[in-house]
Amino acid sequence: MDMNKQIKKLESVYLEKPQRVFSMYLNTDPSDPDQQGGEWKIHLKNGLNNFESYLQEDGDSDEKRNFWAIKEKVENFVHNNEQNFSKSLVIFATADESVWFAERFQMPVETEFYWEETAKLDQLREMYSNFPKTGIILTQKEAIKVLDTELGTLKDTQLFELDLDTEDWRQHTGPHRAEPSMGSGGKSTKQDQFKERFEANRYRWYKSLAPKLDKLAKDRQWERLYIVGDKEEAKDLNSNMNKEITEVVNKNMLDHEESKVIEEVAAV
Fold it and tell me: Which residues of the chain have pLDDT under 70?
């Protein structure tokens, strides 16, 4: 999803009565002290019921039917997806279905509900400003993982591994193995030999991969780019890339859950 295009599309929507645009920002963050008991369910119920009560008093039957249609769709989406909620849920919807935007994010929001002529985009714009299209490159010896992210959400992952026999980087499609292949012989000796060989050739090996990473950054239109890894490895990779690096995080996190890596970068 191109969030910038989505925001521009939502900005163009204007509906007069009895049509309206429903906007919802719902804090579902389980780490929030105010959400330990799943209070977001109460906030959701109260938010929807408040609109329903208001429209009952207003007396516009067409507008009420439009809201009920949206309410049903929102409740169905929540029911079908709540097991996969992260920190927030953002929904924009219209009864005629010309607008239906429902996304779960790993970024916090303040719970808000709106029923107006236009979509309320302030929080979404702020989220995008804080975390636009972003690439995260994780280095760890002969393996490099690339995360394609936007608004704190993982869109795609690619893993490059160095073939020590051919010295070529190959895109890895299977699960990442824990250690490089050392061949036969004493494990400790082989590891020492690998370490010495890697340190001696690291700059050259990273230089050969840098153009592929620069192309990824261009193709994915990353506005920010982070390198996460060992200080010296990150330094060598950074010096060989043409794309400007936003920040270097000196932590080995290649084998961490992607969500933890994104959280680490978001906190920089």
Answer: 1, 58-59, 173-188, 190
Burial of 165 per CB tally in 10 Å (0-12, 13-18, 19+): exposed
Burial class (CB in 10 A: 0-12, 13-18, 19+), 230: middle
Residue type at position 137 = I
Cα–Cα distance measured from residue 130 to residue 251, given in angstroms and rounded to the nearest whole number: 22
In the 3-class helix/strand/coil scheme, how is 239-262 assigned residue by residue?
Answer: HHCCCCCCEEECCCCCCCCHHHHH
Residue 5 burial (CB < 10 Å; 0-12/13-18/19+)?
exposed
**Residue 115: count of CB within 10 angstroms of its CB:** 18
Q: Do 153 and 90 touch, CB atoms closer than 8 A?
A: no
